[in-house]
Design a protein that fits this description.
Layout: E1 6-10, H1 16-31, E2 35-38, H2 45-49, E3 56-59, H3 64-71, E4 77-79, E5 92-94, H4 96-109, E6 115-118, H5 124-139, E7 144-147, H6 154-167, E8 172-176, H7 179-191, E9 200-205, H8 209-214, E10 220-223, H9 226-241, E11 251-253, E12 257-260, H10 272-284, H11 291-295, H12 302-313, H13 317-335, H14 340-346, H15 352-363, H16 367-375, E13 389-391
Parallel strand pairs: 1-2, 1-3, 3-4, 5-11, 6-7, 6-8, 8-9, 9-10, 12-13
Antiparallel strand pairs: 10-12
Helix pairs in contact: 1-9, 4-5, 13-16, 14-15
């Protein structure tokens, strides 16, 4: 039932991240009968909000000064920008350290043992992504090299980048600060004669269809789940406008997934038999295969296979099969309308009950609750999710 509540959306429309957040915000408001007003985020808050008749604002506060200007308006306000750390007003942000961790786990799963980050100078979200990435690979015993163009111009950055890329131990997994930076990096890498993904596997952030799709090598990217972020911000802001207290700490929304494309489509293992085994696991995991099916394709003993797979990816073959099945299940729960029973069969589980029990134990919630939370059908508070990689359906290696 509609009420008199009306909220303002003051977000730039030229960035995919903010557009998706605005769509999520709008969807929540429409579902809950809340009015919406859109305005130009470049105007001063007082000029912008005068006459709009709104009870709260979601915005991009690109500086502490800008946040203070909004705070002075006397309305509940939520910031969703991580360009810098904001303290003057509450924030709902992507968990950017989790973004870095997710990218690192994806590259570690490819068998890579050399890692690097190309960041964006002065941006808080980039520092957080690099920190999460570096912490994850360091915990597995691997160093991480960093390049952020701090204190020098784009031209100086362009002059330094080729030598830095050439010095990286290959093959290497690289996280770029966002998809735009990753798209530009592809050009430098190709000019340096470095093969993507065979020598350099690359992951960006934002899953921006323009940058990922127009890159000479289609880009793998972490989807930060801005839709859920927008819905979360709307629910909190509506509550604040009705008298609920503002959150005392930044609300972090976990990223959705790594969307894997050609730029990270590689298995970086030296042993060709192990590569065959890992590729077979990833291709056939949902066909109810067993370890014997893998052994039938490689001249290895069960013990040797177990040891080699664990050394390469940190999991046993059985654990990898289960991980891949659950990964595909999460994709189907999110992207399809199939029943839980149909998904259980499609992912290689013997029964729907086995699937539900296993999914709940490993992911932390039943499949139905996961689907409601991820698709937005029903409101569930944000929570940290198990990292997942989604491979674009029907992808074929160029």
């Amino acid at each position: 039932m509609a009420d008199d509540l009306r909220l303002a959306v003051l977000l730039p429309s030229e960035y995919t991240y903010y557009r998706r957040a605005a769509v999520g915000f709008t969807a929540w408001c429409r579902e809950h009968g809340v009015g919406i007003a859109f305005g130009d985020p470049a105007l001063s808050p007082l000029d912008l909000l005068r006459g709009m008749g709104v009870a709260g604002v979601v915005t991009q506060a690109s500086s502490e000064q800008r946040a203070s200007e909004f705070a002075a308006c006397g309305l509940p306000v939520i910031n969703i920008s991580a360009l810098t750390q904001i303290r003057a007003i509450p924030s709902v942000l992507t968990d950017n350290r989790a973004v870095g961790r997710l990218a690192a786990e994806h590259l570690l799963d490819l068998g890579l043992r050399s890692f690097a980050c190309v960041g964006i100078d002065g941006h808080f979200y980039s520092r957080e992504r690099q920190a999460g990435f570096s912490e994850t690979v360091s915990a597995r015993g691997y160093p991480c090299r960093h390049l952020a163009p701090a204190g020098f111009t784009h031209r100086e950055y362009a002059e330094r980048l080729p030598a830095w890329l050439a010095a990286l131990p290959k093959p290497v997994g690289v996280l770029a600060g966002n998809d735009q930076r990753a798209r530009g990096l592809v050009e430098f890498v190709r000019q340096a004669g470095i093969a993507i993904p065979e020598q350099l596997a690359l992951v960006g952030v934002d899953d921006d269809e323009f940058f990922c799709g127009t890159s000479p090598v289609p880009l793998s990217s972490v989807d930060p789940d801005a839709l859920t972020l927008g819905r979360t911000a709307a629910a909190l802001l509506a509550g604040m406008a009705r008298g609920a207290p503002a959150p005392t700490a930044t609300v972090l929304v976990p990223p959705r997934a790594v969307v894997a494309r050609q730029s990270s489509d590689v298995l970086a293992v030296a042993d060709p038999q192990l590569a065959i085994a890992l590729r077979f696991l990833r291709t056939h995991a949902c066909e109810r295969i067993q370890i014997g099916d893998v052994l039938a394709r490689v001249p290895m003993s069960r013990r040797s296979l177990e040891r080699a797979v664990r050394d390469a990816i940190g999991r046993s073959p059985a654990q990898e099969i289960l991980r891949l099945r659950l990964e595909h299940a999460r994709w189907l729960l999110r992207e399809s309308t199939q029943s839980v029973g149909a998904i259980a069969r499609a992912c290689g589980f013997g029964t729907a009950r086995q699937f539900v029990v296993t999914f709940h134990r490993k992911v932390g919630e039943p499949p139905g609750a996961f689907r409601r939370r991820i698709t937005g059908r029903g409101e569930v508070a944000p929570r940290r999710t198990v990292p997942v990689t989604v491979t674009v359906p029907n992808h074929r290696r160029a």
